[in-house]
């Protein structure tokens, strides 16, 4: 049996390389949008296509002809939409569910195969890395049991995708919330939390909060105003 994984983030690629050799079947990886073509998929002819993280719309000819499973970091239908990790942390959530669902034309609205709990402690990079390993636990159970996904139940809550301008740390926050702002953006490819001050930008990462004291690494760069 063949299986295909489509993902772009380094932590998910690392997890693919670590866990798929332990799974049944033959596994194939696509890590570039241009590679995910109908011709490629036909040649592999996968039982499932798994999308641990994918930033593009998958062509309907693929989703209509193959069972496509995507993963979302909320307890759906709560938190449909973009930037789930950041939206969860900024709302004060300490834990969530990784939801494996069937990919459909409506974003994050497909039937659910399975969920796996996930704590939201540490940096975004650490959370994503933990999530990547948990995803393969779910993948293993899906390929072994071939479950029938079930409809989402409950009220729909939508998250808006965050933009880089929202990475500026607002004034008047408590130390704990500032810590959350820094850590929720501390991952590869994400715009770091920052403060503009006197013509320079202070960018923060590697935050720790111990006994009410916040420490973080700061990088300072000049801000050019047009």
Describe this structure in words.
The protein has 226 residues and is of the alpha/beta class. It has two domains: 2-159, 3-Layer(aba) Sandwich (Rossmann fold); 164-222, Methionyl-tRNA Fmet Formyltransferase, Chain A, domain 2. The protein is built from six helices and eleven strands. The strands form three sheets. The chain has a six-stranded mixed sheet with strand order 2-1-3-4-6-7, with helices on one face. Helix 1 (10-19) crosses helix 5 and helix 4 runs antiparallel to helix 6. The longest helix has 22 residues, at 124-145. The model has no long low-confidence stretch (mean pLDDT 95).
Brief summary of the model shown:
This protein has 6 helices and 11 strands. The protein has about 230 residues and is α/β, with parallel strands linked by helices.
- Indicate the overall shape: elongated
Sequence stretches where pLDDT stays below 50 over 5 or more residues: none
Count the helices. How many?
6
Number of structural units classed as domains: 2
The CATH homologous superfamily of the largest domain is called: Formyl transferase, N-terminal domain
CATH hierarchy: architecture of the largest domain: 3-Layer(aba) Sandwich
Query: Could you state the order of secondary-structure elements as H and E?
Result: EHEHEHEEHEEHEHEEE
